Amino acid sequence: MSPKQQRGEATVERALEAALFVYARDGEQGFTVGAITRAGTLSPGSLYHHFGNLDGLVHALVQRWLERLMTPLATALLEADSAREGIRAAVRAYLDFVRDHPDAALLLHSATADRHGMAHAKELRDAQEARLSPLAAWLQHRIATGELADVSPSLLESLILGPVVATARRHLTLGDTDLDEAARELPERIWSAVRG
């Protein structure tokens, strides 16, 4: 890699780190190009060069942290011996991510990410295709064996992740939800809703 490419990668990294920092510190109202460039000691021109605009930066940031959420979640699910254990492992992996990366979790569960996700749903899904295809196959196999209810994989995904996402949002925004309690209670309650 050339020195110019290394500098470019370093600039992208600084911009992404600064953007997450600013979002966690200032929320959506303070998430501006000026705040991000000041926090990352970047020029506005370099931000526009690498990301096009603020939406491009949000896209890169959401992609980065979705990947970091989905990797351990997919691994936990695919390595489980049964559907029940897969659900338990996936819930734990998701809640561990929220605990270990609260700033990124706050961004991923924010109105900013929701708007971005709605505007770029297919693009985000396509970018995660390599990770999502094995999960869809896992769900299909568990449906075929009778372990999971015979409903569409998209509905199963909502039944499995919906309560976890809602718990994470509440924990991140109100702070009145205990993640350890959620990790103990949610898997069995989700399992009762999706078992075959």
UniProtKB/TrEMBL annotation:
Gene3D superfamilies: Tetracycline Repressor, domain 2 (1.10.357.10). InterPro entries: Homeodomain-like_sf, HTH_TetR, Tet_transcr_reg_TetR-rel_C_sf. GO terms for molecular function: DNA binding. Residues 32-51 bind DNA. Residues 9-69 form the HTH tetR-type domain. Pfam families: TetR_N (PF00440). It comes from the Bacteria. Keywords: DNA-binding, Transcription, Transcription regulation. PANTHER family: HTH-TYPE TRANSCRIPTIONAL REGULATOR YJDC (PTHR47506:SF1), TRANSCRIPTIONAL REGULATORY PROTEIN (PTHR47506). This is TetR/AcrR family transcriptional regulator. The lineage of its organism: Bacteria, Bacillati, Actinomycetota, Actinomycetes, Kitasatosporales.
